[in-house]
Model the fold of this input.
Amino acid sequence: MTNELAGFVYRFVPGEGADSSTLLLLHGTGGDENDLLPLGRRLDERAALLSPRGKVLENDAPRFFRRYAEGVFDQEDLINRTHELAKFVEKAASEYDLDLERIFAVGFSNGANIAASLLLLHPGLLAGAILLRPMVPFDPENPPDLSETPVYLAAGRSDSIVPAENTEQLAELLREAGAEVQLDWQPRGHELGDAEVEAARRWLADVVARVD
Done:
């Protein structure tokens, strides 16, 4: 069932058991609150799934923040939308009694970019993140403290949208902030493949086991 909270249309699927994690599912351009539910279930069959729809429309395609052109972000809007998303996560955690220490973002493309922005602007809000085809959202003046925050970053060697050097820059930026980054290069383009979904599933299982 679709719901609305803090200005976001979203889907919520309860987890199995009081100790289940929550996956914050953030779709790519043109997606919606339903797009990543199957992916979330593949990554963790017991997790609660929290999946908001981006509030910005680009030619009727939902996004999480505005951009001027491909790869050129509206920085002011990105920052404002990131703060809005953080408030949504906090309110959803209160609404559904979610453990903030067990919320992991799973973002694809535009969703991965705002997930990275969440890490940088709201350190401590997320227990970790799976970033699929992300770009550097912005270069912070003062790096946040992401000590021991685990991040799985999946990139495509043939990605025509995200330059390899941008991916490397994001990985380095997160590492400099203290995050534990696993950078997984795949022989693909911007689309996802089964190999990296399985790798992300194993990575998440290991990270959740450490939390337990």
In short: Residues 2-211 form a domain with the Rossmann fold fold (CATH 3.40.50.1820). The first strand starts at residue 2 and ends at 5. The chain has one domain: 2-211. The mean pLDDT is 95.
